[in-house]
Amino acid sequence: MPTYDDALALFHEWTKTESLRRHAYAVEAAMEYYAEKFGEDVELWRMTGLLHDMDYEKHPTLDEHPFVGTAVLREQGYPETVIEAILGHATYSGVPRTTLMAKTLFAVDELAGFITAVAYVRPTKMEGMKVKSVRKKLKDKQFAAAVSREDITQGAEELGVELGEHIANVIAGMQARADRLGLSGS
User: Fold this and answer.
1) What is the domain count for the chain?
2) Rounded to whole angstroms, what are the CA distances from 74 to 23, 65, 81, 148?
3) Average pLDDT, integer, range 119-145
4) Is 186 among the domain residues?
5) Does 169 fall in a domain?
6) Whose CA is closest to 113, among 179, 70, 49, 176?
C-alpha cells in the first residue's frame, strides 16, 4: 500500500495551484482530527483528505472528477475504502457514503473550504476562531456563495454530529495545521 509520502508526491504531481493545494491540506487536517477522535487510521484518513480533489485541476467536469483520479489511485494500489470515500464525496457519482471515512470526507469538504474563507477575512486568520463567527457567516448567503450550505448541513447530519460541534471539530483540526494552510495568526 502507498505511504503518506507517496500520496503527497502524487498529489503534488497532479495539483499545481496553491489554492487547491491549500484546500486539500485543510480537508486533510480535518480528516486527521476526526481520525484521531474516532480512533481510526490517521495516515489513511489524511491521505484520503489530501487526494480527494487531486484530479480537479486537469479534469474539473462532472464526467471526469473524481473518476479520473480514483482510477489512478486504484492502479497505484490505494485501498478501496479510500477510493469509495473519494467517489462518495461527489454527490453525483452515484456511490453511497456507507463508511465512516466516506461520511467524514463529505462532511468536512465544503466546511473546510468555508472555514478557510472565514479565516481570510479575519486579521488573526484561524487563531481564536469561534463557532459563532462561522455560523454568522453561514447565514450570509453572499459570503463564499459557491460553498453549498446544504452539503455542510447534510454532512454533519450523515456523520451524526451536531452542526456546532462539527464546526468546532473542523476549526480545531485546521488550527492544528494553520501554518501549513497559510492561515496562522497575524
Assistant:
1) 1
2) 23, 15, 11, 29
3) 96
4) no
5) yes
6) 49
